[in-house]
Amino acid sequence: MAETKKAKDDKQKEGQQHSTLREYYVTTVVMTIFALFVTTYVVHPMTVPTPSMEPTIMVGDRLLIDKFTVRNSFLPPVPGTPEHEIRRGDIIVFKFPKQPEVLYVKRAIGLPGDTVEIRSKNVYINGQQLDEPYKVHSDPNVYPADPSHFYIGEGQRDNLSPVTIPPGHYFMMGDNRDDSADSRYFGLLPRDHIVGRPLIVFWSYEDERDAYLRTSTPEVLKLYAERVIYFFTRTRWSRMFRVVR
C-alpha cells in the first residue's frame, strides 16, 4: 500500500515537472516570437558608429528606431494605426543602397519632385536656400564643382549641379556635412530602402572613433571589456532618453 502511494506521488511529481518544463518552453517560444515581431515591425535598437550626424547624433549613441509609423513600400499601413509621412528635415534610418545589410542614418533634405542644388556648401531646394540650423562644417575649404563626375569624389561635397528627385526617392544628407557619405556620393535613396526613424537615445557610450573597424575576435572582446570597465565614466548620462530630432 505504501509503495503504491509512493509510486503515485512520484508519478504526480513527474507530471508536475513535465508541466513546468512545458510552461517554460511555451513561454520562451511565445516571448521569442513576440520579440522578433517587435524588432521587425515596431521598434529596433541601433548603434551609431560614425560621426556623420554629429552633433545631433554622436558616435556611440544607441537609438530606438520606430519601424511602425514609417513603413517602406513592402509594408502597407494597418487600418486605424498612425503613419508618419516623411517630411523635409526628418532623420531617417535606411539600408545603404550599395550594401543593404548596412544601416545608415541621415536627414531627408530633398523630397520627391524637388530640385536639389548645392552652392558653396549651401543647399538650395527649388531655387531657394534651405535654412539648416542643424548642420555643421568642420572644413573651411570649399571644393569646386566637378562636372565630369556625378556622386563621385569631393567635387560634389560643396557644389552640386541641380538634381531633380523622381517619385519614390529622397536626397539624404548628414548634419556633419564635411564628414558624411550621403546622397552626394551614393545617389538618391529609393523609398523601399527606408527602415524607420530614430525616436530616442536609450544609451550613449563614448566609443573610440574607430571602434566599428575592430572586427577580429580579440579586438571585439577587448572592446566589450572596455565598455564594462568604463561603463560609468564613459557613459554620456546627459544624452540618456534624449529625443532625436
Describe this structure in words.
The protein contains four helices and twelve strands. It has 245 residues and is an alpha+beta fold. It has one domain: Umud Fragment, subunit A, CATH 2.10.109. Strands 1, 2, 3, 4, 9, 10, 11 and 12 form an eight-stranded antiparallel β-sheet that branches. The longest helix is centred in the N-terminal third of the chain and has 40 residues.
Tags for this entry?
globular, 12 strands, 27% strand, four-stranded antiparallel beta sheet, 245 residues, Umud Fragment, subunit A, alpha+beta
Brief overview, please?
By secondary structure, the protein is α+β, with helices and mostly antiparallel strands.
What is the CATH topology? Umud Fragment, subunit A
Specify the CATH homologous superfamily. Umud Fragment, subunit A
Given helix and strand content, the structural type is: alpha+beta
Oligomeric state? single chain
Number of individual domains: 1
Mean pLDDT over the full residue set: 84
Q: Report the top-level CATH class.
A: Mainly Beta
DSSP helical segment count: 4
Cα radius of gyration in angstroms: 25 Å
For the report, how would you describe the main beta sheet? 8 strands, antiparallel
Q: Which overall shape is indicated by the principal axes computed on the Cα atoms?
A: globular
CATH architecture: Ribbon
Portion of residues in beta strands equals 25-35%
Give the end-to-end Cα distance, rounded to a whole number of Å: 75 Å
H/E series: HEEEEEEEEEHEEHHE
Q: Count the beta strands.
A: 12
pLDDT below 50 for ≥5 consecutive residues: which ranges?
A: none
